[in-house]
Amino acid sequence: MRPCWLLLFLLLCQGLLPWALGQNVPAQERTVRNLEGQLNQAKALEEQSQRRIRILNQELSRLSTRVENLLKEKARLEGEITRLERERAALSRQIAQLKEEIRQTEGRIAQLEKDLESLKERLQALMRSLHREKAGRYLPLLRAQSFTDLAVRARWVGYISKRDADLVHALQATLKALREERERLGLLLADLTAKEKALGETQRTLEGQKKELEATLSSLEREAQGKRALLREALQERQRLQAELAQLQARVLAERQRLLELKRQEEERRRQEEERRRREAERRQAAAQPAPREASVVVPPPPLPATVGRLAFPVPGGRILVPYGQEGPFQVIQGPAPGSPVQAAAEGYVAGILYLPNLGYTVMLVHTETLSTVYTNLQEPLVQEGQRVERGQLVGYTGGGLLIRPEELEFRVAVRVGGETRFVDPSAYY
Questions:
Q1: Rounded CA gap, 181 and 60, in Å?
Q2: Which residues are in the M23ase beta-sheet core domain (predicted)?
Q3: How far apart are CA 429 and CA 326, in angstroms?
Q4: 413 and 421 in contact (C-beta within 8 Å)?
Q5: Which of 241, 247, 310, 321 is the most buried (most CB within 10 A)?
C-alpha cells in the first residue's frame, strides 16, 4: 500500500475523512450554485454589452450616412457658390465695360452738345446779321458786276445758310441717338447691377447654408467621436466580461467535477460505513458476551525504536490543549499565535500530503517501518511528498482549515504492532 493511501486509510479508520467529506459536499454544492449564479450574471452582462455594441454600431452607421449626405450637399453648395462667383465676375466685367461705354458716350454727348451750342451761336449771329441787314440784304447783289455774279453770290449765301442748318439738324439727331444710347446703357447697367446684387445675395445665402452645414458636420463629428469612444469602452468591457466569463466557466466546470468527486467519495464512504456496520452487527451476533467497554481500555503505547529517540514537540512554544482520547485519537496542541510554526517530530520522509478545505493540509511523516506522525490543520506545506526531513525541520504553519482554530494543530502518532496500525498517545514519546 502506498504511503498516501496509508494516510487515507488511517483517517478513514478514525472516522475523520468521512466527516470532513460529509461537511464538504453541501459547502461544495453552495459553491457551485454561487459560481453558477455569478456565471449567469456574467452572461447577462455580456449579452447587455453585446446589445450596447450593436446599438452603438447602428448609431455610428446612421451618423456616417448622414455625414456622407451632408458632405455631398456641401460639395453641391460649393459648386453652386463657385458657379455664382464666376457669374458675378463675368457680370462685374460687363458692368465695368458698360460703365466705360457710358463714360465714352457721355463724353461724345458733351462734345456734341458743345459743338451744337457753337453752331447755335453761329446761326443766331447769322440771324441777327440777316435781321439787321434785312433792308440791305440785296446790297451784295447790287455790287455784283454782272447778272452771273449776282446769281452766284445769292446762291452762295443761301448755300451757307442751308449747310449750317443741316449741320445743326444732323448734330441734334446724333445727340438724340447718343442720349438714347446712354439711356439704354443705363438701363442695361441697372439690370446687370440688379442681377449682380441678386447673385451676391444668393451667394451669401448659399455661404450661410454652407456654414450651417459645416457646423452640423462638426457637431456630427463630435457626436461620432463620442460614440466611437463609447464603442471602444464597450468593446473593452465586452472583452473583459468574456475573459471573466471564460474564467467562471472554467471554475464552474472544475467545481462541478470536484462536487461529483466529493459525491462519489461520499457514496463510497456510505457504502464502507454500511459494510462496517454490517460486519459489526455480524461480530456482535457471533460474540457470546459483548464487551461494550472494551474500546475504552487504554493500550499502553509500545516503546520507540532506539534509532528515533524521544519525539520533538511539534509546535515550539505551544501547549497541549486537548489530551489524547478526549475528542479523538489525537492531541490538540495550541500554538503561541495563529499561523504558528510546526516542526517534524523526528527524522523521516514525507509519506503523503492531503488537502481538505475544512481541515486544511494534513502531512504524514514516516520515521521507521513501525512509526509515523500526522500533522493536521496546516497551511500550504513547506515540504513535498517523498522529501527527506530532519528532526525539528519546519513543515508548515497552522491555520489551513475552516473548522479548526488557526493556532491549533491536531497531532497523531501511528504505530504498527504486528499486522495492525493504530494511533497512540503522543505524550508517551515526548
A1: 64
A2: 337-413
A3: 18
A4: no
A5: 241
Q: What is the pLDDT of residues 212-259, one digit of tens each?
A: 988 998 988 898 899 889 889 988 988 888 888 888 888 888 888 888
- One-letter amino acid for residue 188 of the chain: L
- Cα–Cα dist 139/130, whole Å: 12
- Residue 4 CA to residue 359 CA, distance in Å, equals 17
Q: Cα–Cα distance between 178 and 102 in angstroms, integer?
A: 10
CA gap 66, 39 in Å, rounded:
40
Three cell numbers, residue 6: 496509508
Q: What pLDDT is stored for residue 7 in this prediction?
A: 53
Sign of CA dihedral 226, 229, 231, 234: negative
Lowest mean pLDDT among 70-74, 160-164, 185-189, 395-399: 160-164
Q: How many CB atoms lie within 10 A of CB 106?
A: 14
**Count of Cβ atoms closer than 10 Å to residue 292 Cβ:** 7
* Residue 180 phi, psi dihedral angles, 5° rounding: -65, -40
Cβ neighbours around 324 below 10 Å, total: 22
| Cα–Cα distance for residue pair 3/386, rounded to 1 Å | 10
Residue 293, CA atoms < 13 Å, CB-side half-sphere = 0
d(CA 160, CA 300): 179
Q: What is the pTM of this model?
A: 0.42
Tell me the residue type at 173.
Answer: A
Q: Rounded CA gap, 136 and 28, in Å? A: 156
**What was the pLDDT predicted at 118?**
79
- For 217, the grid coordinates are 458636420
Q: Which of 352, 410, 378 is nearest to 6 (CA)?
A: 352
In 3-state terms, what secondary structure has residue 414? strand
Could you tell me which residues come within 8 angstroms of residue 12 by beta carbon, excluding any fewer than 6 positions away? 18, 269, 272
Q: How far is CA 166 from its chain centroid?
A: 98
Per-residue confidence (pLDDT) for residue 393, from 0 to 100: 95
Amino acid at 154: A
